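Co-fold these.
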Amino acid sequence: DAGVIQSPRHEVTEMGQEVTLRCKPISGHDYLFWYRQTMMRGLELLIYFNNNVPIDDSGMPEDRFSAKMPNASFSTLKIQPSEPRDSAVYFCASSRGTGATGELFFGEGSRLTVL
Amino acid sequence: GIQVEQSPPDLILQEGANSTLRCNFSDSVNNLQWFHQNPWGQLINLFYIPSGTKQNGRLSATTVATERYSLLYISSSQTTDSGVYFCAVDPGNQFYFGTGTSLTVIP
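Predicted complex below.
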């Protein structure tokens, strides 16, 4: 079975540009998570969805960040306008349930560099 | 939110040595996972272990949920074990990650 698929793997852009990161969760998984990893802050949860509905977006740093999940097999994380401090690795993860049931699986990440 | 502490923060081992990594958490959890982030940045699932003991080759893990800790054992370490090991706990709504143990295995 295919794992979580993210694109692009690497993105280099200039400050002020729009960035869109994409994620395809594992088929049958009903939870989808977006994480950001930096040296300073480690792995931090940005937002998660259950059955395509955003449940908790309290980790989204500011209004420049938005995420959507139009269907069970696709999600996007958008940054507009991007800033150099947004440079990080963005991971998407999915699970079948949470709590006592949900093992989390990660994609390979999207490494974003904003110049 | 729940606090997750991992120790030691850094570890250097000679190839062939054994090690124990620890994860303490501040509240009861329904779920706990160990991950290995390899030098290429990939997060690899090691164990899904809310309680009890599991073994996979040279690695094993034990979670004592009532005492709020988990241990990851690495035996006969190899250079490919290098990377960062993360513990993640789920009290019922989302996973919270520790800051990781950075392991370097030298030949």
